[in-house]
Amino acid sequence: MKIRKMMAVLLLVGLAACAHPASEVFRDQNMDFGAIQTILVMPFANQTREQTAADRVRDVFINRLLASGAVYVPPVGEVKRGIMRAGIVDATIPSAEEVKTIAGIVKADAVITGAVKEYGDVRSGAASATVIALSMQLMETQTGKIVWAASSTKGGITFTDRLFGGGGEPMNVITEKAVDDIIDKLFK
User: Could you report the per-residue pLDDT of 147-166, keeping only the tens digit for each?
Assistant: First the structure.
C-alpha cells in the first residue's frame, strides 16, 4: 500500500514538472476591443537563429487572424509602404508616436507588434523536438498605449520523447498552435 502511495506521489510530481505554466495575459479593462475593426500587424522581432522565423510566424498570424473573420488586416506591402512613409527606423519596436503616425497612414484601429523568442529544434540528451515561443502586444492608435499583451509557447520535448525518442510535431503544426493560442487570448 505504501508503494502505491509513493508511486502516485512520484507520478503527480513528474506530471507537474512536465506541465507548462499558464502564460499571463494583460488586458486593459478600459479598452473597448469591440470597436477594433482593422489591425495593422508590424514586422515581428526575431530573437532566434532561424533567419526567416519572424516572417514565417507573421505570415501564419496574419492568415489566421484574417480567417477568424473578426477583423481586417492590411496587406504586408501596404504596411511596408506605411512604415517607409512614416519614417520608422525599427518597425519591430515602434514608439507610441510612430504607432499613431503609421495608423493614420494605413487607416488602422490598432497595431500589433511581436517577437519570436524560440523557433526550431531543441535537444536534451538523446531527445530532440521542435519548439516555438511568441509574445505579442496590441496598441490602440489614438495614444499608442499597449492595451493587450500575451505570450505562448508550444512544442518542446515531452516525457514520451525522452522515453522513446522522437522529434515532436512538425514546425508548421506547432506554429499554428501557438498562433491560435495567441489569437484565442486576444478575443477572450
Answer: 999 999 999 887 777 677 66
Q: DSSP letters of 82-148?
A: HHHHHT-S-TTS--HHHHHHHHHHHT-SEEEEEEEEEEEEEEETTEEEEEEEEEEEEEETTT--EEE
Task: Tell whether the torsion through CA atoms of 21, 25, 26 and 30 is positive or negative.
Answer: negative
What is the pLDDT averaged over residues 1-26? 50
Q: What is the DSSP letter of 73?
A: -
Domain annotation for the chain: domains and CATH numbers: 22-187 (3.40.50.10610)
Q: Please give the C-alpha separations between residue 34 and each of 39, 66, 110, 151, in angstroms, as whole numbers.
A: 12, 16, 12, 21
Residue 49 and residue 39: Cα distance in Å, rounded? Answer: 28
Please give the Cα distance from 114 to 5 (Å, whole number): 46
Reported residue count of the chain is 188
Alpha-carbon dihedral angle through residues 26, 186, 60, 45, given to the nearest 10 degrees: -20
Q: Nine-digit cell at 145?
A: 498605449
Question: Does pTM top 0.70 for this prediction?
Answer: yes
Place of cell 499554428: 176
The 10s digit of each residue's pLDDT in 77-102 is 999 999 999 999 999 999 999 999 99
